[in-house]
């Protein structure tokens, strides 16, 4: 059924019914007139300048904003070439997608009200049937439309809304499948009916304004290659894949200066961007080469051992341009001994208070450090065609090197592994690893018996016939990451609205990644056709903290002020490090008193959390008005380091949430 395709005859019948209803039931059934508000419904959007968009899109319908005062709900659509004949707002007013009309073209909706042009309709059907009651036609004081702006107001009482209610809202321009807000296939954005600073007796309760947009926060989002410094999309992580040959060009000489120059460590530090680090022993490319040092090859041979095998895969299975390299002899006792020293050097280098490296991926084993030497059968039936992958007794020694080197350093660097193995959660140091999925978005690689997600949850038989255990629900305490599958084409497919992006969102909900890279959309131009989906995914990945409510005494009396903060994490994952949550009493830019709460952000998974603590107040504090602020403190700088999805951000990064007086 196509929505909003109203015939002239049907509109005429609707109008007759409306007139009869008005005659029978008197004007009390008509929608109430809007009351005076700071927003004027006049087609001029200047008075909306301080209000952030709930959702954006490219093309005709570009931005949707919503606000309210004590009596009216206001909505604004801005764009270019908007239809002046047909358009519709869709409202889910009970925040329940299982009730109401299921409008096509978005995710599940559950619509109770539709404002088509200036006529308001209440849904009366069973969820799929097209059954609406016309409630009223809005006057010019409540509905204005032109080709660039659509502005309306509806009394909250008509929609049966009150403070604290959460609604979902969208807009469709001219019955279009694409010119809509939010973009096609997305979920309708949320808006909570709030008041500014209501007081009840001696207590002030504040509902801060929420921002419905992705944030450029630490340890989440995109992690493109560190080797470039020019990415259109914002990001706070970069990926540094380092070969052993780069790390130790001569025996015992760990050339960190060269590695850090190549990967722009100083630049990224200046931008507050952290590094995902991977040591690689075999990185296939288009030409013959080795990724372990020449001196190491010579020493292994001198020990009477094979150094490995050079390969050039003619099957095409490794991907165009990625078919040639050198697979080390992982069983070499000399290589194992030198690998231990190399991993220790990396850990010692980056276990510092400035924390340049946030996550260390266990690479070392297999092509690209991905725990495989596939393909195993060559064009003429050769076994182990591109090198032999080691059995557990050997590969576990490499993993143990990481455990020994990084155990006890989890406050600065966290260890991650691609495949679930016993040592990932059970080892002699009590170190539990996060995991990363280097084929994120690809359904078979996720769900098959051998798939990444299936393996983490149920265990699996690996590529060389060994049974490996599960690392079930590792994300409950550790971080999940990865990168999109299939290079640029796979990433674009995974971000394109339809089956691709639907699958990406499903995998996000199941495996709860905080970041993706180096294959990520960081290099795509801002505002392209994939931007809405990029933003949706970035917002949902990792953590996304929203301050929902703050309460405190209206006036300062005594030696402290008790503050209660309610926060919702709308992301899929917790914050990875134990950064402190601080509540502050401020006079302008000066923090006059503060308290570090006992909140543990590493336990804040998806859901709501309440923190209550008291800020000490000196008896000498002068009379006056003071701000109350909330901040997550970066221990590296001892300053606020994480944005909440709220308005009120101060110049130092803390968030003003209320005021009080003494």
Automatic annotation (TrEMBL):
Official protein name in the record: DUF4832 domain-containing protein
Which species is this record about? Paenibacillus kyungheensis
Q: What is the lineage of its organism?
A: Bacteria, Bacillati, Bacillota, Bacilli, Bacillales
Source species, domain of life:
Bacteria
Recorded hits in SUPFAM superfamilies, A to Z, give: (Trans)glycosidases
Segments crossing the lipid bilayer: none
Any idea where the DUF4832 domain is? 434-638
Which InterPro entries is this protein grouped with? Answer: DUF4832, GH
